[in-house]
Amino acid sequence: MNAVSYLELLRLTLPEIALTVAALLLLTLDLTLLRPSPLARRFSVAAFIACAGCLAAIALVAASSATASLPDGMFVLTPLTHVVHIVLLVLALLTVLLSTATRFTDHVGEYIALILFATVAMMFLIATENLLLIFVALEFLSLSLYILTGFDKHSRQSAEGALKYFLFGGMSAGFLLFGMSLLYGLSGSIELPRIAAAVSGPSLDPLLLIAIVMVAIGFGFKVAAAPFHLWAPDAYQGAPTVSAGFIASSSKVASFFIFAQVVTLALLPAAGTAGYRGYTPGWVPVIAIIAALSMVLGNLAAIAQTSLRRLLAYSAIGHAGYMLIAFAAHTPESLSALLYYVITYALASLGAFGVLGALEAEGVDRIRDLAGLNRRAPGMAFCLLIFLLSLAGIPPLSGFFGKFFVFAAALHAEPHLSLLWLVLLAVAMSAVSLYYYLGVLKQVYVTEGPADAPPLRIAPPTRIGVWLLAALVVILGCAPSLLLNWFSIH
Amino acid sequence: MITALTLLPVFGGFAVLLLARSRAAARILAVAVAVAALALAIFIWHSFNPSTPGMQFEQWHAWVPSLGIAYHVGVDGLGVLMLAVSAMVVLMSLAASWSNSNHGPVYFALVLFLEAGLFGTFTALNFIHWFIFWELSLIPAFFLVRLWGGQGRARAATQFFLYTMVGSIALLLSFLAIYLATSQPNAPGCFDFVQLAQLAHSGQLTTALAQNLHWGLSADTTGMLLFWAAFLGFAVKTAVVPFHTWVPAAYSEASSETTMLLTGAMSKMGVYGFLRILLPIFPQEMQRALTPLLWLAVATIVLPAFAAWVQRDLKRTFAYSSVNHLGYCVLGVCVAAKLAGSEIEKAAALTGVLLQIFSHALTASALFWFIALLERRTEGWRGIDEFGGLRRVVPVFSGLMGIAIFASLGLPGLNGFPGEFLIFKGAFPLAPWAASISVLGLLMTAIFLLTVIQKVFSGPVNPRWELLPDLTTAERLAFVPVIALMFLIGLYPQLITGMVHATVMQWVAGVRF
Amino acid sequence: MLAWTIYLSFLGALASRLAPSKQAARILALLTALAGLALTIAAALHWQPGELLTVARVPWIPQLGIEYHLAADGISLTLLLLTGIAATAGILFSWNIENRTQEFFAFFLVLIGGVYGVFLAFDLFLLFVFYEIAIIPKYFLIAIWGSVPRDASGEKAGAQREYAAMKLALYSFAGSALVLAGMAATWSVSGGKSLSFDALTRYPFPVHFQMWAFPLVFLGFAVLAGMWPFHTWAPTGHAAAPTAASMLLAGVVMKLGAYGCLRVAMMLFPAGLGPWGFHFLGLGSWRDVFAVLAVIGIVYGASVALVQRDFKFVIGYSSVSHMGFVLLGLMTLTRIGLDGAVLQMFSHGVIAGLLFAVVGRMVYDRTHTRQLHELSPMRLAHYIPFAAVTFILAGMASIGLPGFSGFIAEFQVIVGTWRALPWMAIVAGIGILVGIAFTWRALTMAFFGEPVARSHEHALPPITLPEKIASLLLIATTLVVGLYPRVLTDLILPSLNSPLFEGLRKGAWR
To answer: What is the mean pLDDT of residues C69-90?
Structure first.
């Protein structure tokens, strides 16, 4: 056991500390001084502090561009983790901005602080290559998310969603833990690269295969891939809108990143192939099957939805499938494709939930309630158009480029074009996805709402947040290099 | 020069459409344009050098070089004759419409467009260029029938259009095959009438057909196939029996002024096709198909003559009479294609055909003009049995129309005679049996035309028409040149034969191998 | 300068959306379209034969070797001209749109911008981006402003429009999904260095790859070109769309598909056209397969058009038939056939625009019915003679009467087919005959019917000036091209000789 310099650790975790401090500060302020103030004021102050904390953290991350590695892979900083940290912080900042319009709770401080705590958990999750820390951070994150899901105490749906999320999450944690302990047992190490060295052998150990399946199931729950997706629709529908957006964006980014870390760092030698003709057992075939299932199930089930949130949940399952294709390819190229995809997906998805959140006062949940939105709030309608089309993969929005990059990288992976079947399936499913996204947009733009409905008033922070997200989606789509340049340092 | 002639009525038509606010202005403008066109045509006639064969006033511009399509115009004796005929008929028709209050500016414009189509058809020497005008002339003709006809005009116009269209498509396909056969991998095929005639004469066309069309058919069969396809196109237009059935309907349902154009000018497009295309480009095929062709020609002469006899409608009678008269032209062309036989006879037959073209245009237009005048006076009555004794009621009208009818049945001294005489002079030695049967047609023509004279002009006066007004002074004056021309051609056919002699001799040489 | 056609269209869309009044939006849109047209004409005039006019070339996504590469050869210029003309005419014909005018023109111009982009793009990725940009505005144009038969009203009308719009969007998107897969495979097989056409045409793709990539990509694009049996979006989409959108759909958007077939599938994977080495049902190559489908489309489209009761459906199916000629021309693999195909793209674009304008704008907006048997007693030729004359001219052009652009295009296609696939030429000829029949039927029924009673003596609004200008523009275009096809063939033929089509020429080219 190597000694850890705590000072060093303190220096490296400054951004996380800043965020935590901000969270504690706003919690304290809200519980003491602001208690009697009106809800709006409390939200503004809390959001202000949270935003300041996020900005400070971003500045700290950007400033400490150093790479660092603590012993046992406990805390590893690379340029790539910096990027992901910044992305997570930006997402958190935008989530906070969007949340200021919510009025469902008077526990303002707790709500915002939980968002920040979850972000801290994700930052740790990103920056570790240690199985134990991964598990701890993941559970920290999950705990925050369970609470965020069930935060609306007046809503039975919220409670139901939270309970389902919690039960499934707990089960998945069990699977994950079991898989991890098997890995430890096989390799004698909890550090990802060392596991890789230990499991590289001429043949695949059956125990390792069990471990792989367990880990895949565990992470499958986290990223809501079929057939482990059952919690997602209920959680998305029941959770307060902003929480749902947060689950759909930030936690997706973090989960996918760490999933990729685990399988590529620890299990690379046991990859196997899922090629059309050259099948070899390993985790790639497992992932490929999960990907295919997710794409088909998510997209087909989304067609039948009448609730916008459930629709987004099922489409998220479909998107998880696309992203898993990049796993199956597991080249450096496909991993940067994955990162690009998940980041832009998070932006668009958070944006869509942001628009929904802005409409929350109107009780909008069913797709039909969106009728006439274009007349009542043209700006929001246009942003929703951008988000949904990006999710559908229409250029020049970022979702399209993500898809193309993932598909191209998957095909480019050795052996040549062996993943074509998966890509063709994905392509077919993305055509299906346009159907339901257009169905939503049809309500927004085509269907006339009630003639006397007044224009909607959108709170300025929400408006800023949504427009920022829309701008990011468009800009990253038109100039993907902005993001790709960061990855290529890796 | 020729381009100007073709463009003149086009612009005239647009001017009528856009400028003329009233019927009066439109008719003045239209007649002025037609007069100018006639003057131009006469000028071309005058400047034409009759002693040289081949094309004159030629113009050639590359159009779509990659496809061998060129803007190529020129006239030989045939062309110059056709120009004169069209200009004359159009002017007559416009003059006849002068006092027909149904015919507004649109009518006059369409007539002028039709004239442009005719001019274009009779001067174009590249198939595509020619085909454009061939089809374009159909459009105004269709609308003239469709919009200004009698009760059954819709049906008649549709029938007219469909028949002609089917013929045109057969023609187009035939030329497409020729084009493909003459094209080389790196060079476009040939659409030029003059070049094609040379190729046909030298036998290269047949060779090309055999080599370049991989149809699995012999060169002879291919040639015959293409010939009959092209023949169909012209047969419909000329109204060769059995492709004539559109004629009675269209001629009788169209207003008489329109019928003047149809019979006087448009039917000549078919005969023109026989002379310009079938005879020079398919000489061998024509020779091989001579017997069936002659049967068709004979049928076209005889059957309509009988049919005309039993008609009870003046317009239908004259419609069948038109078919019959063009039958002589077909007969003349066919006998000239015979391989054996004296060239003098062939030349006589062909010269006869050209004379017949001119004279039938003149006579038939005049006859329908008279019918137009009659219809206007009787408000549509035109049954043969519904009149009687018009000779006493409207003497001038009856006299002049009588002259035209006699010209039509070929009375010596009038314009109908020299043409028919020359055709029979050529046909008797070359195809005695066909000529003999055709004489029956001559006889029947005489019978039914005389019947018309008897029933309409003689006999007791039908009291209904006792107060029928006679021709006005203006109308009489208008007929003066027409009747004069009938006598002139009848007495001095050299006016035309002189013009076309060189051309005819060239054709005769063309069918000799 | 040519790149500004794209930018101007998008800027114009923005300006129209934000325009203070409806009239301002119309004028802005018209100015945008005119500017685009002017730019294209200027470029076409300065074009040197055989030249590849590079408009812009900057690295875009260097990590993937994707460039922002705009360039135009003669084929692109031909279609750019078509776009400019169709856009201008479309805007003039939509002058009477009163419902959400600003948005209408915004969507319209976005569509135009996308189309310009496709024709200018010289990088496969960029082409695809613009190709997809064009899909979404189509959906909204139809779903919001579409027209439906009179008997359907309220809910039902909306449902019909949305059905047509959704069908169109999904077909397009499914087609482009195939292209996307093909594009990703192309990128990966060619080494992931570049997707620029000049690099790709030089890359020696393995024959077995071309053998499956060609049909994949060709099919993807051919869906949008209305190839039978994937054409069913076209008639419903065209019929349900507002006039200007049908004009653009049939006139330009279907050409996107055909252009893609030529520019991407055939230019990049010429070996995919080669023989399979075995025969299945008498078909020996993908070329045979697609040629047969094209011919079936020609005859089927025309035959179905013959029995339609809805005027707009007649025209919709006629588009399927005429686009069959484009695909057939492409499959001839002869110079003359390809020339004819591109010319037919242009010609059909203009003619279909004109036909839809007559049916949708001049007739439907005045009589509010598209049923031929209801139009028949109205004797429209007497009340709106301008529409009748326009339809006659357009119909003549459509059936391929000489002197109009349709003739020279279909003629070349037939000649090319006759050389390469003689039997198909005969079947296609039958298609032309049926085409004459249905045009004829529609014309006489719609404009020259017999009055049943004198109950229809209501006054129809007169034809407005914008309609007249736009009709004349389109008529003049088809006449000019018909009478002097060299304006376009001089653009197209040298481009077919360029090194880009080297692979195609080496193959089965005759």
So the answer is: 88
